[in-house]
Amino acid sequence: MQVDTIIIGQGLCGTMLSWHLMKAGQQVMVIDESKPFSATKVASGVINPVTGRRIVRTWEIELFMPFAVNAYTELGKELGVHLIDQCNILDFHSTPQNKIAFSERLPKETTYLSEVDEKTWEPYFHLLFGVGEIHPCWLIQLQEMLNAFRKKLTQQNALVEERFQWEDCIIEPNGIEWKGNKANQIIFCEGTAGVTNPYFELLPYASNKGEALIVSIPDLPRNNIYKQGISVVPWKDKLFWVGSTYEWKYEDLNPTPSFLDKTTQQLQNWLKLPFEIVNHIASERPANVERRPFVGFHPIQKNIGVFNGTGTKGCSLAPYFAYQLTQHIMNGEPIHPLADVQRFKNILSR
Fold it and tell me: What contacts 24+ positions apart, CB below 8 Å, involve 276-280?
């Protein structure tokens, strides 16, 4: 088979990139070994316009968030599934310092922050130091998206369900050959496997482990995301996703009893409602030191590309940078300099 682009991985980045390339008229081949607990499959799917204890706007959110909302809406319509809902965050202050920080930011950040009638939430939560609202926030149905787009790829004979092995790939000056299939270029959207990619392993990856509980809380309204140290996020099948951790040192990717015990205790202290833990999941995230994605082509092997490292901001970053990379391939348009992998040209050229 002759295609334009081979894409390795069908997580969030691989899905968005293959969608944009297909819209631009390219024929793609996606190679993906399906795993039950990939980073995208266990992520909460939240787009939050502010970040950190100082509650500041996330990088370029005024650009990325509207683009993402339009992209998920359009893709959902195309696939015949509902992918995005506005689901604002209720930020429950756990310390006096948290409350002070929110109050100080409130008059300066009226676009994304507002006060809340706390009495509304007294039947559901133990309110320590009040609650504020972050808006607009969005909830992406990542599982629905991955499954529906995988079905589309299968129907178009564009998906190969197996693990990519380098020994099957031949890199030539003017193209790529993989198991007899030829392409103009190959792009790696492989998540945490990027740390062992021979062409991009020198990038400053900072993979971390995250855990979450899947919890049944029948009496809790599902039109908000609730945050107090941990986040309680509406999940499929009328359940809630509760997490997550950021572990930088870990021996394996298995769920840990310590997270289960600690998070259960947090829920008991916070919720006034009965709940039941249904599942405990864990995965590794493809984050990086700079907290900026890796987008573009290798400085020497110019037909080998990467789209990775979006970390916990993947839902807001992936749609925009998939589009930018597509425009770069099709029309030679530049990639945002803080995301373009060429910023590591000297390192990658070693």
Answer: 276/215, 276/216, 277/213, 277/214, 277/215, 277/216, 278/214, 278/215, 278/216, 278/239, 279/213, 279/214, 280/211, 280/212, 280/213, 280/214, 280/255
